[in-house]
Write a structure and sequence with these properties.
Length: 107
């Protein structure tokens, strides 16, 4: 993700082989403006739905539509309501995680 912060406006650009999306985050309309400005690879942004995580210490966190959040390594995810998310994650590491999940659900 390309991220630019100029005063009270932050713009994030997400691109892949299908196109590009820009996220505009003006400080007055973005409750978590500072967190948006600090996004980096490995961070997640919720778009819609409801998702709960449990970290390695057993603490649970539920995120819903329009929440901005970060989950460090070592968490489990459970979708509580249909969800669409945008995830920023290094490709190689994420591919290993997805491949592992696919193997686990095969039974």
């Amino acid at each position: 993700m390309l991220r630019r912060v100029q005063g009270k406006l932050a713009v994030g650009t997400i691109a892949d082989h299908t196109g590009r999306i820009q996220l505009f985050a003006p400080s007055q309309a973005t409750p978590e403006f500072e967190a948006f400005c600090a996004l980096s690879l490995g961070d997640w942004i919720s778009v819609s739905g409801e998702i709960m995580t449990t970290n390695s210490a057993g603490a649970e966190e539920t995120v819903t539509t329009n929440d901005l959040f970060y989950w460090p390594p070592g968490h489990n995810v459970r979708v509580l309501a249909d969800a669409e998310i945008i995830m920023f994650s290094p490709q190689r590491e994420h591919t290993l995680v997805i491949d592992h999940m696919i193997e686990m659900v095969k039974g």
